[in-house]
């Protein structure tokens, strides 16, 4: 494969998706790649993967209800990105943070956000303290047709 110079040191889209979704089958990775084929170069993509501890605490129905808020927040009668429950495309990087802030400030997805780990000792004896985030948030940007730049957003779900 001949990569452009700007793609030379960046991970492939497949490698990025395999890192973000380590348990996903090749077929599912291929579906995610197709899903991302419509994303323009350098557009921001928010990816949220579920946290099993949160699911065990609240259940899948609560997870899907909260995730659907991320998929529809700020939109009128439509769903982001082909009804995805994990991949959300934004034209501007600021938009993905505005959606996050709006959901958190309006308490639109109860229990999705959590107390940061550094503050857990202060909340150990408080019943119902939300210490577990709903999932792991990632930011991905396509760079060229074959490469991507991505990273985990460690603070996305912190209160």
From TrEMBL:
Full protein name: Uncharacterized protein
This protein's species is: Gigaspora rosea
